[in-house]
Amino acid sequence: MSVDPIVTARFLYEDSYTLDRYLKTGGYQALRKALNMNPEDVFKEVDKASLLGRGGAGFPAGRKWSMLAKNPVRYLVVNGDESEPATFKDRNLIEKDPHQIIEGSIIAAYAIGAAQAFIYCRGEFALGLERLEAAVKEAYEYGALGRDIFNSGFSLDLVIHPGAGAYICGEETALLESLEGKRGFPRIKPPYFPAAIGLYKKPTVVNNVETVSNIPWIILNGGQRFASLGGGSSTGTRIFALSGHVKKPGYYEVEMVKTTFRDLIENYGGGVRDDNQVKFFIPGGVSSPWFGPDLLDLPLSQEEVAKNNSMLGSGSVIVVDVNSCAVRVAWRITKFFYRESCGQCTPCREGSGWVEKIMRRIETGNGREQDLDLLLDSLDNISPGLRWPPAQTTICVLGPSIPPSVHSAIEIFRDEFLIHIKEGRCPYD
Amino acid sequence: MPFSEENKEKAKLLISLYPQKRSALIPLCHLAQGQAGYLARDLIEEIAQMLDLTPMEVIGTASFYDMFHLEPVGKYLINICTNVACMLNGAYELLEYATKKLGIEVSQTTDDNLFTLEETECLAACDNAPCVQVNHRFFFKVTPKDFDELISQLRQDKLDIPPHGVLIRNLRTLPKATSETEVLQERIAMDEARARRENK
Predict the structure, then answer these.
(1) Spatial distance between the Cα atoms of A363 and A352, rounded to a whole number of angstroms
(2) What ipTM score was computed for the predicted complex, to two decimals?
(3) Looking at the complex, does the CB of residue B159 fall below 8 Å from at least one CB of chain A?
(4) Which fold has domain A9-228?
(5) A106-123: per-residue pLDDT in tens?
């Protein structure tokens, strides 16, 4: 069953990123409506929608806002540092509908009474940065930003802040450090949320690009209507980024819960390339444990996926066909974490290197008999117990994100690891 | 070579956008790379001076980020993504082809200082795997044949790719509209109004 898209509705237009097209398609109407409401009522509307954060952790946006400490100076930061491997929804939202992000940000800033808003955009998105900056300029000239927006008495400045290439800056406290002009080191918790102490030690809300993109629709159509889509705590629609061995990889905005992984892969993705069988799929970015083909009929619901010991994470699904090596995929994921560990905490900094080394050894046919035990032991030292959700011994969740993929690879494809070690080669080479 | 007069003006505007000066560090480093191609020592010192930091603080921060180069790189920085989605679609084969084609290893620069080759992490274009960026401009579904074509066009200067500096075309041109004190007064008034409503 398909519903009308919410955040990708404008993507069909060639000039979807211009103010002209935005205004022709109902743009900035939600902001006008919101500015005529009390900030509390705007907040209530978003809370009613029970909009879950779309960044990866899936924390309700309304609750995040409500935790904001009472301080006259507060900030809104929009997280556009999309770098979870296989996630490519935010880049498309930034490049194709920057005004929607800006409008959502202004409404959010109004609801929480933010003194200034920032959009942290990943540095590698050259085109995205250009489009965002151009859109901000248009918005100022149109009167949607700056002093006394639409004669409401509400003023807001918005700054597009470029990143410079660091996965860890997607972690909200690392992002704030980066925005303060420092190395992207995640901050020690507590405080658990920047809502208490955030940017420049002031209460701050950090929301994902896709999360704020939903806000204009929610204001125009009501939180109730948004909540009526999907089911359980997974409300509304969501963009799923589908990649790997599918015929039509791409981003698909679908209603949550009502769609299954099989629908997504077969109906939207056109099935597996060369009509092969699915060997396994990664349900929510490389930090999530893998699923075998037996779980293809699982609905795209945060709760259902959690019940099966994984997560929807950033909404990116990677499909791997039967002709591919699971060990190689697991190795590449560990290599990623090894490269991106910020180096603050020992389990993550040292552990990621150990695990990558052992995985590379096995994949290249140099594995030793005791390597599988050594691997599990190393993983256990990064995240004790190897359970889901993973235990945390580090400042941020990058460390605990290292074991799940390798651990689930060993659980599902233990034989494949053993063949690599016994035969001293990769059977797929 | 110090910042050009034009870039000095841009730097001043960038600094004025943030409640605290140091926040402009990353944008200013991008500005410096746009001018010199890398973070040249004298530019680092100038940035430090503008932000009331020491040069070491600038280097210490910049060295954390993959996009900043403390050593000169080629005119064209070629980033080939080899992360999972690209790997499943032939990225490592492409990377190997690229090293042979350019006659350099990963992280090296060609003798003519035209190309620097880098293996990079996911660039968020997994539906177009394998993807490549040249000075952070995308090229999608790149085959070895496409790569040949890309290199030949770059050699002939036929592509519209700015040399260095991801922000070179789009630095902020508008100043902030409200000062921090004005915002503060406005927000205090808003909070008081809210408190009055709640007390009713």
Answers:
(1) 16
(2) 0.95
(3) no
(4) Rossmann fold (3.40.50)
(5) 999 999 999 899 999 999
